[in-house]
Amino acid sequence: MMSTCLLAQTRRVLPRSLDRSSSRSSLQSKAAPTMISQKQSEMPDCDHRPVAYKGSSYEQILKTRRNHLTPNLLAHFKKPLVIHAGHMQWLYDHEGRRYLDMFGGIVTVSVGHCHPKVNQALSEQTAKLWHTTNIYMHPKIHEYAERLVAKFPGNLKSVCFVNSGSEANDLAMLMARLHTGNQDILSLRNCYHGMSPYTMGLTAHSTWRFPLPGVNNGLVHVMNPDPYQGIWGGSNCRDSPVQTNRDCQCAVGCQASDAYYNELEETFKYSLPRGKVAAMFAESIQGVGGTVQFPKGYLKRAAALVRANGGLFVADEVQTGFGRTGEHFWGFEGHDYLPDIVTMAKGIGNGFPLAAVVTTPEIAASLGQALHFNTYGGNPMASAVGIAVLDVIEEEQLQRNSLEVGTYFLTGLAKLQQRFEIIGDVRGKGLMIGVELVGNREKRTPLATPHVLDIWEKCKDLGVLFGRGGLHGNVLRIKPPMCITLADANFAVDVLARAITESLPENN
Ligand SMILES: Cc1ncc(COP(=O)(O)O)c(C=O)c1O
């Protein structure tokens, strides 16, 4: 009998005629890797054999979801997938179909689904001790704390473990307010920092906000420095192998960055108490907001301005940490500044509920004013997983892989942009990539949702799972496990080309 992997593979052969040879002028040659681009139209091989699915029927799952799970749960695709097994960059549905996972459980599966080393670390730990809280000195959390803080520059040497990104950002808000004695916290429009009552206020997307009193207490959303969709932007603003197709006259520096920074200064002048700010939060690249990168120099100057006004700067590395952006281990390093607090989740645990806040001992001291407790944060299982994830990133050089495969991937996507008007923008760094689909390239208007969904669904049918993001859901988000290969990148680019071609009105 033909294996499941092979079956899935033969179903998804793309025409070899797809042409990917055109070039793009705004590509910066410095970032192009010296790798061979070969035509690759078939789903790359995989020798893993998933276990057969033996669970509830598809209909039963749908029924349970409809009747017993809360309606906030998103279900992707017209016929939502039942995913029951995973292996590295691959996912398997209940009928044995294999998919290339370009979204990694929403930027969470950093080193690969069911990575053997992480599995082994977890199973060794579960055989010894699952859980005890930090009232006892179980060894793993201490070993892990040493390993994690060693990854940080400067005096970022104190860590508090929690279970989710929202909790990490909640705690960072608390620490900033306690340490400074100030109340007001700034965040950028289009940001996503979580869904707890505290962080829902920080998050600045109408789609993610519930109409509750008090959500915005002490929170100010400032203009997003978005060089593609924002008021200002140009052809050399961002730290990416691919630039926007907007023009600019900057000979030195970045005028867009200056203009957005001036806007931030205006907020300080008009909306905040002088010298009395608690913090500003920023993702190093906005994730949920659609892989939005900021103009060079903006965050560094913003951090200085916040500090001059008595506040702390918090880098939310929930999506951009752990080597994903390729050049650096932490996204903030790409912006050349040192935050006061760093929050992390998702990729830290490869899917295990683990998150952390790292800060200086002085700022951490604010938590000594009262008891602060978290039952599971950094428990033996979580810490064992966290250590294994760090080991794998180092041993398999996944940060370097993110840089090489990510740059190559971006280059391939930029070539697609030349072929298809509806690709308005390609952006990102390493394996943190966005492809913005537009209805009108000049005006940068979002592509109509049914058309976006059609392309997205076609990609799924051809074997590639992309994420979506941005306020209008028109940005394809590509943030796969960092173990993907050049062949995977080729396949994903070819699938996207085919899906776009088939979706165009002249082909329907
Ligand atoms: C940048 C960022 N911060 C915080 C969060 C919240 O993390 P969690 O869903 O683990 O609470 C997310 C989740 O997507 C995120 O993308």
Automatic annotation (TrEMBL):
The UniProt catalytic activity note for this protein reads: N(omega),N(omega)-dimethyl-L-arginine + 2-oxobutanoate = 5-(3,3-dimethylguanidino)-2-oxopentanoate + (2S)-2-aminobutanoate; L-ornithine + pyruvate = 5-amino-2-oxopentanoate + L-alanine; N(omega)-methyl-L-arginine + glyoxylate = 5-(3-methylguanidino)-2-oxopentanoate + glycine; 2-oxobutanoate + L-alanine = (2S)-2-aminobutanoate + pyruvate
Q: Where is this region: Disordered?
A: 14-49
Q: Give the cofactors, semicolon-separated.
A: pyridoxal 5'-phosphate
Checking InterPro entries in the record gives:
Aminotrans_3, Aminotrans_3_PPA_site, PyrdxlP-dep_Trfase, PyrdxlP-dep_Trfase_major, PyrdxlP-dep_Trfase_small
Q: State the top-level EC class.
A: transferase
> EC number(s) on record?
2.6.1.18, 2.6.1.40, 2.6.1.44
Main location class:
mitochondrion
* GO function term, MF aspect, one: (R)-3-amino-2-methylpropionate-pyruvate transaminase activity
GO CC annotation terms, alphabetical = mitochondrion
Q: Which domain of life is it from?
A: Eukaryota
Which is an annotated Pfam family here? Aminotran_3
Q: Which family is it part of?
A: Belongs to the class-III pyridoxal-phosphate-dependent aminotransferase family.
Functional note = Multifunctional aminotransferase with a broad substrate specificity. Catalyzes the conversion of glyoxylate to glycine using alanine as the amino donor. Catalyzes metabolism of not L- but the D-isomer of D-beta-aminoisobutyric acid to generate 2-methyl-3-oxopropanoate and alanine. Catalyzes the transfer of the amino group from beta-alanine to pyruvate to yield L-alanine and 3-oxopropanoate. Can metabolize NG-monomethyl-L-arginine (NMMA), asymmetric NG,NG-dimethyl-L-arginine (ADMA) and symmetric NG,N'G-dimethyl-L-arginine (SDMA).
The protein's assembly and partners: Homotetramer.
Q: What is this protein called?
A: Alanine--glyoxylate aminotransferase 2, mitochondrial
